[in-house]
Amino acid sequence: MHDHEPGAPELRVQVLESLLVECGYVDPAALDRLIETYEQEVGPHNGAQVVARAWTDPDYRERLLADGSAAIAELGFTGRQGEHMVVVENTAQVHNLVVCTLCSCYPWPVLGLPPVWYKAPPYRARAVIEPRAVLAEFGAGVGEEVEVRVWDSTAEIRYLVLPERPVGTEGWSAEALAGLVTRDAMIGAARVAAP
Amino acid sequence: MNGAHDLGGMHGFGPVGQEEDEPVFHDEWERRAFALTLAMGFTGQWNLDKSRHAREAMPPGEYLTTTYYEHWLFGLEALLAERGLLEGEPAKLRRLDAENVAKVLKTGGPTGRETNAAPAFAPGDKVRALNIHPEGHTRLPRYCRGRTGRIARRRGAHVFPDSHAAKGDPDPRHLYSVRFSARELWGPSAPASDSVMVDLWEPYLERA
Fold first, then answer.
1. Residue A6 — very low, low, confident or very high, per pLDDT cuts 50/70/90?
2. Which of B81, B156, B185, B204 has its CB surrounded by the most CB atoms within 10 Å?
3. Chain B residue numbers touching A32 (CB-CB < 8 A)
């Protein structure tokens, strides 16, 4: 254990940042860039492009399910917390749901940083033992005839759910379809609603 | 370690609270705690598994009553103290400069490694997760220890977190997605069709 003094995190972070900058360990401009990247650039809109492409291009869908990392890299989404991507497909028979019970593992390049609920105890505790109740809470209840498959991200494999394409979108462009795809649907916690 | 972070299957936390139009960060200190953790990770003074272990070492009562970025802050403070980096003369460390951020993030840090060892298991094999309780870092969740499942997929050899956190040794081992039926994990009231897929390294498994 270390001599941790509980206190307001605001103050502790301020003190830490000034010490680390003073020591020359961190470049304050690099901190700003890191924050900007995940606040403004990388997010679920990336994953939505992957999903929309898979819905409109059967060859791409096949490549995506066979080798997630390579197919996602085709669209330029690579890197930290997405080095080993696996895509699992939701169908009328199987519903996939992704969790990280031990921490907060999440595919950053395609979804950005995880929402608070994904990192907090209720979801991490319940997704594995009562996924159907969790899905119902999200308004994505599944019938008894559907198999629920929960993926616990205990290693460095990062999972992205390919949701079912909603009815009523025949003939839509990939761009228009991407606008329908939500973060929660790509975690498997929701379905993509019909327009 | 059997810490409060190993949450799978616990009861009593209530509903999964969702927030409409949730911002990426809720406060300025969260932004800075996040960025400081990533920037200090780049110095190479510790690895990702070691930093996960530092967060897990938070006393359970505290872990469950603080927020996510407070865990990160706790972990960062602990690692800095352990390395003595804020005492005496500053060390000469590899520094992440602003112009390299995009490249470093785009490249990431793959954990896949080559190994000469042949994989011990093949898809379809019946395996049991060991009933072990290491005090150090491990990625074998408590809820599947001692339980029997089947190898679903081979995932290649990856850095083994237990060795990596303890000794900085990548010690690559074969990794598998193992399918545990919900009934095996949670008993007869669980739906027969359902399952939990857990990514487990070979040293966590034995043939069943």
1. low
2. B204
3. 35, 98
